[in-house]
Amino acid sequence: MFFVDVIELEGLGNRSYLAGGASAAVAVDPPRDVDQVLAAAARRGVRISHVVETHIHNDYVTGGLELARIAGAVYLVPAGAHVSFARTPVSDGDEVDVDPGSGLSLAAVATPGHTSHHTAYVLREAGRPVAAFTGGSLLIGTVGRPDLVEPRLTEQLARAQHASAHRLAEVLPDDTEVLPTHGFGSFCSSAQADGDSTTIGREKAANTALTADVETFVADLLAGLEDVPAYYAHMGPANAGGPDPVDMTPPAVADPQEIAARLAAGEWVVDLRSRIAFAEGHLAGSFNFEAEGKLATYLAWMIPWGKPVTLLAESAEQLAAGQRELVRVGIDRPASAATGDPATWLRDEESLASFPRATFADLAAQHEEEIVVLDVRRDSERAGGWIARSVHIPIHEVHRRLGDVPDGTVWVHCAGGMRAGIAASLLDAAGRRVVAVDDGFDAAADAGLSIVTS
Fold it and tell me: Domain 357-452 belongs to what architecture?
């Protein structure tokens, strides 16, 4: 009897897997913080015999090399991937025994498209396919992006995605479980996953890679691609070079004088508390990236790469969680940190800053003449409708385009509130009067605001 444990990486929108039998297991696309994979194996009472990568990842730093070292496991990496460390190259058709006593094996299937070397792995029990670890190829209702390698290869890889999806559908039974790495919020996916679980049979009926002809599929896929997070440029090289082990020890504690000095030096001081708590009271000049939000994705996307970051948190637990998220994307050691009541982060002569939060109904009732409505959603979200006369700057561009925000009190909104909170903190730090609209965008029309749809 086999098992598959899902290791959810919600902040990055990815999944990793531990799959095996009675005594041994394989880890698929493990995160940088490998302790949770080791803990999952310990709970199952199995050793990790193999660690496999479906591809060289562009959206996070892998823990595969370190996990294989710690577990004494065979490290399988697609043969076509150019890496500078020792590994066992795997090619199409290769098969390894994961847990011979349970009749479990793993077979490699070349599935180029997300990258040219992308490889899926089919878990077989007594020779029968039971699950396919599809990485960034066939996802739930969609496929992985083909534009993360080289712009000149994008169309070629999009066509390869279509062919790879069809290959999986042809060689695997309909009841084979499809277990992708991407698609749960990661920008490595061309669209959000359509559901939480799937099979080959369901994908045959619903995935456009399997229902549309190649020309239609490629045209639609390429038309829907949006901006790539800036930090992705650093992930591939880090993974190809062989990531260092992580250091999760707590950062040095910063006192109010040090925090003030770091702010004055132009370093990023990031408050991990909720956007509600931040709006009520925070250090002037600090930025708000909620630990419970997509901290790793948005902070890594927006911070100038390599700039020192100081973390502020309400507790040691929140700080540790934030630090864990950031090591997954290569932000390894915060320069310093502080926890507790924000009033204790102030120097004697300072006071906390604040700004109001509001709803779309509040915005509709606003009669102040000089206000700016700032929409920080993605292009695809805005295409579905926007508030008349609003200014559009996607969240990842706000920090570089503060000068493009017109004069007046800025009412900033997104689709639900999290990104509006980030943008409001950036504007507040720049000295702008700001109101964070913490509301679902569906409420805008209900509030009587004029929505443009074309």
Answer: 3-Layer(aba) Sandwich (3.40)
Q: What angle separates helix 214-223 from helix 154-171, to the nearest 10 degrees?
A: 130
**pLDDT digit string (tens) for 428-443?**
999 999 999 999 999 9
Say yes or no to pLDDT of 359 above 90: yes
Rg of the chain's alpha carbons, rounded to an integer?
A: 23
Q: What is the pTM of this model?
A: 0.94
Chosen CATH of 3-241 out of 3.40.1390.10, 3.40.50.2300, 3.60.15.10, 3.40.50.2000: 3.60.15.10
